[in-house]
């Protein structure tokens, strides 16, 4: 198979130089500037040698079936294995988490380390991650009129809609859009795109925290107004937690873990692919990421974390705290019979338990072993895969990333389920903006797959099997 050969051979092309005896920590931009030319040269070699390699056949069913199994994208920063789960720049999650640097406080990895890894392919030193943290804190300002716009949103406007709205508004300060309009050379696009990506990632905690404050404020209370700002002595996640109003070290650590592990899941999922396709028209990172958030807000994708906790809470209300597995099973069967999905279970690519579920479940077992909702998460794990596997219709009966996250958030007092996808979105910025930035670095063209009508399918494969059209 050509593509496997290409994969094996690609490990032999020159990779970015490793850092030797460097005492001054790199900034992310310095390191990117060193890596980019080498990587572009690698890609030129890969395309010259393997450009004609065949990545597989496309059937009519695949075209009707959500393009499952069609390989048609390059996404440099992560790869999903159906059995093993996500690898981020070739590192599996269980292997990577202990290696990512910790900050000045807390015991979980700083998401800044993950961002550095996704962009450069290298696990940063603690100093590099802290430097990036400080840089993000400096960039974490939002134009006051955007804060006012958010303050004017009705409390009832879904937090994901508010997020998308605010990110679109931030496009006002896009450096890439201005540079493009001024006619800068194509090979410098990525530099402006990089600036926008870092600015946007830096602004997200402030935007998202303001949304949280506004949707959770007491009835009749005024919106946040002025007064939320980033503390340069805190890390990205710590700032986010503090601005939302959470003060405990354990919450901070839980949030660091959440923001680190939700960052990316290769390029074909709805949120990443949306960001990729919108950006391929050279829409700037703000417009691309706002579109990405609209996709994440769908219940079959990111909104499933909201749906999942609602499902568990409702089940607890109906079954109480001492439900048997038989009762849980009857409840699950009734939900499926009514035509609804079991949120937090199933996946379009994964075929085993999601390692992101496992790591959150392990964290919960260590930190909140007596939480009654955690007990139900465990019971669902014992019941749901067996029930979903019956009949062979569901291709993956195992839990995904959303099956345990809500229980963690709820335990620490973040009980507003309609906010959960915003947290997912803030984390996803790290992955989708990294992947999309690399698409711009590589100069990938505007995306334009070919579509067909059903009449055209019949014309291609008929007429002996043609239905009446
Ligand atoms: N509960 C009940 N039925 C399910 C199911 C679940 N958790 N997962 C899949 N199915 C059903 C599908 O609805 C589909 O039924 P129909 O043929 O009647 O339409 C059938 O099984 C086959 O689906 P599939 O090929 O196994 O799964 P898809 O690739 O089409 O869909 C996903 C994947 C995630 C949308 C689906 O498993 C699902 O709806 N899960 C619940 C929602 C969820 O947890 N989403 C979050 C996923 C993670 C993420 O992207 O963020």
Automatic annotation (TrEMBL):
Species of origin: Gonapodya prolifera (strain JEL478) (Monoblepharis prolifera)
Keywords: Transferase
Entry GO terms, CC: mitochondrial matrix
GO BP of this protein: carbohydrate metabolic process; tricarboxylic acid cycle
Family the UniProt entry places it in: Belongs to the citrate synthase family.
GO molecular function: acyltransferase activity, acyl groups converted into alkyl on transfer
Sequence segments annotated as region (Disordered): 1-27
Name of the protein: Citrate synthase
Pfam families in alphabetical order: Citrate_synt (PF00285)
Superkingdom in the source lineage: Eukaryota
């Amino acid at each position: 198979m050509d593509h496997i050969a290409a994969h094996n051979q690609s490990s032999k092309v020159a990779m970015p130089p490793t850092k030797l005896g460097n005492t001054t920590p790199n900034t992310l931009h310095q390191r990117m500037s060193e890596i980019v030319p080498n990587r572009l040269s690698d890609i030129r070699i890969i395309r010259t040698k393997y450009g004609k390699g065949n990545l597989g056949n496309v059937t009519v069913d695949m075209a009707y079936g959500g393009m499952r199994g069609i390989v048609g994208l390059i996404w440099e920063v992560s790869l999903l294995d159906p059995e093993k789960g996500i690898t981020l720049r070739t590192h599996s999650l269980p292997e990577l988490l202990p290696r990512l640097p910790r900050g000045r406080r807390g015991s979980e990895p700083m998401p800044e380390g993950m961002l550095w890894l996704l962009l450069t392919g290298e696990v940063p030193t603690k100093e590099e991650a802290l430097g990036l943290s400080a840089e993000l804190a400096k960039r974490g300002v939002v134009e006051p009129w955007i804060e006012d716009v958010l303050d004017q949103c009705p409390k009832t406007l879904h937090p994901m809609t508010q997020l998308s709205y605010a990110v679109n508004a931030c496009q006002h300060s896009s450096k890439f859009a201005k540079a493009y309009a001024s006619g800068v050379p194509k090979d410098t696009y990525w530099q402006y795109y990089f600036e926008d990506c870092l600015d946007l990632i830096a602004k997200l905690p402030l935007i998202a925290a303001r949304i949280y404050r506004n949707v959770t404020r007491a009835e009749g209370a005024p919106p946040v107004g002025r007064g939320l700002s980033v503390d340069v002595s805190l890390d990205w996640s710590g700032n986010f937690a503090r601005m939302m109003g959470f003060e405990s070290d354990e919450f901070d650590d839980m949030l660091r873990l959440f923001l680190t592990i939700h960052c990316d899941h290769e390029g074909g999922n709805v949120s990443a692919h949306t960001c990729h396709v919108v950006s391929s028209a050279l829409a700037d990172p703000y417009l691309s990421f706002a579109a990405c958030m609209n996709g994440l807000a769908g219940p079959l994708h990111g909104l499933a974390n909201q749906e999942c906790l609602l499902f568990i809470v409702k089940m607890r209300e109906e079954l109480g705290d001492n439900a048997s597995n038989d009762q849980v099973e009857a409840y699950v069967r009734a939900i499926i019979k009514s035509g609804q999905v079991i949120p937090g279970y199933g996946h379009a690519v994964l075929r085993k338990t999601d390692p992101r579920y496992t790591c959150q479940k392990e964290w919960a077992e260590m930190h909140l072993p007596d939480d009654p909702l955690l007990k139900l998460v465990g019971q669902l794990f014992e019941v749901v895969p067996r029930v979903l596997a019956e009949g062979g219709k569901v291709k993956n009966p195992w839990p995904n990333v959303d099956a345990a996250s809500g229980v963690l958030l709820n335990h620490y007092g973040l009980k507003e389920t309609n906010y959960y996808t915003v947290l997912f979105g803030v984390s996803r910025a790290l992955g989708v903006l990294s992947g999309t930035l690399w698409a711009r670095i590589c100069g990938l063209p505007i995306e334009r797959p070919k579509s067909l009508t059903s009449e055209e399918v019949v014309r291609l494969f008929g007429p002996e099997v043609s239905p009446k059209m």
